[in-house]
Amino acid sequence: MQKIIARFFSKLMKSKSWVLVILLSVFIKWVSLYPDWVERNYSNTFYPLISRLQRFLFGWIPFSIGDLLYIFFCLIILYKTGNLIKTLWRRKFTRSYMVTGLQHLLFFVLLLYVVFNLCWGLNYNRKGIAWQLGLHLKRYSLQDLDTLAVLLQEKTNYYAQFATKTQRDSLNRKKILFQHAVNAFRYSSYQYPYLAYKIPSIKPSLFSYLGNYLGFQGYYNAFSGEAQVNTTIPRFMEPFVTLHEVAHQVGYAKENEANFVAYLAGKEYEHYAFRYSIYNGMYMYALDELSLRDSARAKALFSSSHPQVKADAEEFRNYLRKYKNPIEPVIMWFYNHYLKANNQPSGKRSYQEVVVWLIAYYKKYGKEAL
């Protein structure tokens, strides 16, 4: 194992490789400062090609290639860490050993940065869905937020009546759940051509149970192009989470934008459980934001929610309590800083910022369009 890894490093880290990876890193950082360029030349030209190629290569495989890749990376890290500890224990830690180790680390950090951004990450710097729809995103008033929450509650309460247990239970088969998500995007692409989703690649994460303890409900694997869904979360959430991850696949990297794109894809889809899941998610984000400004109003509004909405909210609270642990806050701290480093200054609160898009949407198209 040691010889294989050493040979791999020696072949990879040639002088030409260093020059290339450094130049690409500088180029990526430079173009990320120009959203117009990213939108035109990356998000709408290069990225659709590379993402479809990824899904063509890995989408047909029934299990997650990306998760296996992460496992492989973790094994290498553990192996290298073990070697470092062994070297320190045997007092063989030399200046040459340290310099070589730092060179390997720096090279792979730069390499991962380049591959991540070329495969997907530059989408964090595009103009995005608000520009495509001509929405004017600006600060909203408490009245705007209250109006949004009321409108979303009406929709959520309405679809709660029709999202029957039979419909929900049918989504227990992940193949059916994922196919509905594909259909929802195909249907929405008639109205929004830029949401076209070809060559699907949606899979249950191999880390689903672990994800409950680490705090993730799904994620997009930029290295394999797979949408990963934690299929052990409460069932009423699964359609929304799946659509959110597909939104990442079609090129919307920011979490607030992915939430809004998921909303656009699911709000008129023919499956009531999907519509309910989408509106329930948007309603809860609006309530959370409202509670920060007027907790009494948010509490009063939630009290008039449909019984199924209240039951689902209680199920989610129980889910969070069940998997609460001291490791999750640490993971979320790193994730929060990851989001901030990728053009999302609000960190985890970026998810809730979908309310800005929703308010701008109903102000442009009318309340009935929501």
Q: If you had to describe this structure to a student in words, what would you say it looks like?
A:
This protein has 370 residues and is mostly helical. It is 68% helix and 3% strand. It contains 17 helices and 3 strands. The protein has helices spanning 2-12, 15-31, 35-58, 65-89, 95-119, 129-133, 142-160, 165-170, 174-188, 208-214, 238-249, 255-266, 272-293, 295-303, 307-322, 328-341, 354-365; strands spanning 202-204, 218-221, 226-229. The protein has a 3-stranded mixed beta sheet with strand order 1-3-2. Helix 2 packs across helix 5 (95-119), helix 11 (238-249) packs across helix 12 (255-266) and helix 13 packs antiparallel against helix 14. The radius of gyration is 22 Å and the shape is globular.
Helicity, as a percent range? 55-70%
Global geometry: globular
Whole-number total of structural domains: 2
Strand content: under 5%
Widest beta sheet: strand line-up: 1-3-2
Mean of all residue-level pLDDT scores: 91
DSSP strand count: 3
Structural class: mainly alpha
